[in-house]
Amino acid sequence: MFQDLSEKLEGVFKKLRGHGKLTEKNVSDALKEVRRVLLEADVNYKVAKTFIAAVQERALGQKVLKSITPGQQIVKIIHDELVNLMGRSDVPLKISGAIPSIIMLSGLQGSGKTTLAGKLGLFLKKKGHKPVLVAADIYRPAAVRQLEIVGENIDVPVISDGKKSAVDICLSAVDFCREHGHDVAIFDTAGRLHIDEAMMNELLEIKKKTNPTEILFVADGMTGQDAVNTAKEFQNWLDFDGIVLTKMDGDARGGAALSIRMVTNKPIKLISTGEKFDALETFHPERMASRILGMGDVVTLVEKAQEAVDREQAAKLEKKLRRQQFTLQDFYDQLQQIKKMGPLSQIVSMLPGAQGKMMKGLDVDDGALVKIEAIINSMTPEERQRPHIIDGSRRKRISRGSGTSIQDVNQLLKQFKMMQKMMKNINKIGFKGLPIGF
Predict the structure, then answer these.
(1) Could you give the CA distance from residue 115 to residue 275 in angstroms, rounded to a whole number?
(2) Which of 31, 68, 266, 408 is the most exposed place for a label (fewest CB within 10 A)?
(3) Are the CB atoms for 219 and 245 separated by under 8 Å?
(4) Which helix (H) or strand (E) holds 126?
(5) What is the domain partition of the chain in residue ranges?
């Protein structure tokens, strides 16, 4: 996420840190570079201009220029202004006391509304709600079927009726929720390739008849200024409550995330960070600013770990570690928990320094986990518990069964043996209950 932006900013900061003493000139030169980087990231021109002016006003203060670490002080100022730019603090979804709370998704076709409806349904389901998905897109071919498949995948009901208008489908869904005790209805509304009056009038009619608790504008995070301009148009028509940025796991330059809040004066509430249905996060401006500046996002990483870790299994593992009984089966179980946290590349990106040049060239291969799983799955239960019995003939059988080479099997066994040695000192380190590999 924002790797190119992070690397370029890190280059500017490196020059700043190289100066033992800062002057107005080298601060001004550095901020010109920052402005250029922001424009290359497709940040709105007026937003970039306002941002640089705010940073410059604070950076040219005497306290900064005379500071012992002026370079670091300016990085801190830029971090603070990025937080201000993106909204200062997170703004949670509104869930009212009425049944149902209605969340209406709006946006252009291709922005990812239907997939987001499923992600949002699962997100709320995990928080104890009983959502339904509402197929209000009656124009796009197979849109209703797509949402039905999404609903099946997350085990959430889908309300649809091809014979009714979008407004009537939404009204029927509200009645369904009241009759069956579902407390949240998520409207997947129609989009177009461009904004047109017919689409907007339909959205306005749905808004008028159902009175949504939340109207969310769904923006493709990879489209930069296009997403910002579209959001402004939707805001003029619909007056939505918040923004969701999708496809933030791709090669997003950062323009939408850094511009959209200031242009629309509406908060970014959620971001979609992957293809899986659990890849939806609350948007935290401070954490995002830290990621952009290569400071990592340890808080989100810990939250993901807490969500993924099975506490009972962790307690059992701790006992095994104390008794030095860590096996390949235990290792396999830990891999499954790490996989729940998301792709390895995403996990690594949350570590401090991971966005900048420090991690450039590091190949974070999610396929390596698949290979390890295949090898362990090709072992017998006894081999997983007692890997030392795996001789030459067993290694050949395991490699054939897993579709890997004997060298791959040898490498895994060697690494596991090294890990077992490390685990002998686990009590001294004191990582109580932490999943192995974290």
Answers:
(1) 9
(2) 68
(3) yes
(4) helix 113-126
(5) 3-86, 101-295, 301-429
268-272 β-sheet, strand order: 158-159, 131-136, 184-189, 101-106, 214-220, 242-246, 268-272, 280-282
The answer to whether the CB of 331 falls within 8 A of the CB of 269 is no
Q: Which residue is associated with the tokens 């099975």?
A: 310
Looking at domain 301-429, what is its CATH homologous superfamily?
Answer: Signal recognition particle, SRP54 subunit, M-domain (1.10.260.30)
Contact between residue 217 and residue 133 where contact means Cβ atoms under 8 Å apart:
no
Tell me the pTM. Answer: 0.70
**pLDDT tens, residue by residue, 234-287:** 999 999 999 999 988 765 567 788 889 999 999 999 999 888 898 898 998 888
74 touches 64 (CB < 8 A):
yes
CA separation for the pair 283, 304 (Å, rounded)? 14
Segments of 121-213 assigned E as strands: 131-136, 158-159, 184-189
> Do the domains at 3-86 and 301-429 have one common CATH topology?
no
By C-alpha distance, which of 133, 130, 134 is closest to 182?
Answer: 130
Give the H/E segment covering residue 382.
Answer: helix 381-385
Q: CB-based burial of residue 342 (10 Å sphere; 0-12 exposed, 13-18 middle, 19+ buried)?
A: buried
In one-letter notation, the amino acid at residue 45 is: Y
Distance, CA of 120 to chain centre: 13
Token readout for 145 is: 């079927």
Q: How far apart are CA 395 and CA 408, in angstroms?
A: 10
Q: In one letter, which amino acid is 361?
A: G
* The two three-digit tokens of residue 85, written as one number: 């730019």
Q: What is the CA radius of gyration of the chain?
A: 25
CATH fold, domain 3-86, is: Four Helix Bundle (Hemerythrin (Met), subunit A) (1.20.120)
Token readout for 20 is 């033992």
Q: Is 177 helix (H, G, I), strand (E, B) or coil?
A: helix
Strands 214-220 and 131-136: unpaired
What per-residue confidence (pLDDT) applies to 44? Answer: 87
Would you tell me which CATH number, out of the four given (1.10.10.10, 3.40.50.300, 3.30.2000.10, 3.60.70.12), belongs to the domain 101-295?
A: 3.40.50.300
Q: Which residues contact 311 (CB under 8 A, 6 or more apart)?
A: 433
Take residue 301 and report the two structure tokens written for it: 């990483």
**Per-residue pLDDT reduced to its tens digit, 217-233:** 999 887 777 888 889 99
User: Considering only CA atoms, which of 422, 413, 107 is closest in space to residue 243?
Assistant: 107
Q: H-type helices in 211-351, by residue range?
A: 225-238, 255-264, 285-292, 298-308, 311-322, 328-340, 344-349
